Amino acid sequence: MPVFQEYDIGDQRHSSSDGQRIETQIPTINARYSSKYFGLKKGVSAYTLVLNHVPINAKIIGTHEHESHYVYDLLHNNTTDIKPERHSTDTHGTNQVNFWTLRVFGYQFAPRYRDLHKKLDGLIGFQHPRHYANCLIKPGRKAYEELICTEWPNIQRIMASLAQKDVTQANMVRMLGSYGRQNQTKKALWELDNLCRTLYILTFIDDVELRQSVQKALNRGEAYHRFRRAISYVNGGKFRLKTEAEQHIWNECARLIANAVIYYNTLLLSRVYEQKRASGDHATADIVKKISPNAWQHVHLIGAFDFEQAGSGIDIDALAARYNDPAFWSRALIEPADDPLA
Question: How much is the pTM?
Fold first, then answer.
């Protein structure tokens, strides 16, 4: 749809992933304690991949599992036609392999660090640190180039296994973590990740547009979490299920409903956007393309729904015609509405 292309951030398909904690009313094998989110209760985490306001993939994981172990799996198992180019997470989505792993498979990893200044000590370079004496930001040590060259065949085999789905990223990280600290392949893989992280951090510090893009992508993920919370209001949004498979089904049902509403909103916004562009009203068109389709104030989520075949469909053109009033958009120019669809 026309307006969907306008949701790209910096002319790129910029996705984000984050976990939403969900309490379980019945103890399950993957439910764990988390005093921060559940108090004395147990729960799980719904880890969701969001791109241009659309939740395109999701997975239920335990709250004891690190979110960073599932970043590549969410991206690689995305079967939709919406393909990310850049991907952002918060600090919980970072580990010692994600920069390199995503780079190999064509994704630009762009996380937001909570304490960026602490990461400056881990920067590395291809020259001795004294070579950068006149630089404002200096690496802490020289990169281990010989180690990378020596272990390159083993690293290629690991990446090939991930590409063929012979092993998941979560299992790969667990296996690497179980090895001794002196395992050379693991050290070489971490060194490659350190190089990619160094390049990203230097770019992140220098590029204000990149910082804004990362924050914008993460905000879209948080907006979806609020929407999903509004959809699953029954039982206080808690899972009343006994198996992990049932949890996944319930989470996918909520994602399906969210996608239906987002599709409806995007279709309506696209029609209004096309009308304004055709009439030469570019100021209003610029407002429309900045309106998030992740809105539900105009949807009666607690009503009764009839899914039988209806005699007549929704007249999108008639709905879009309601926004032809110039006075409505003049007010929006002065005081932009949080939800003009409502």
Answer: 0.87
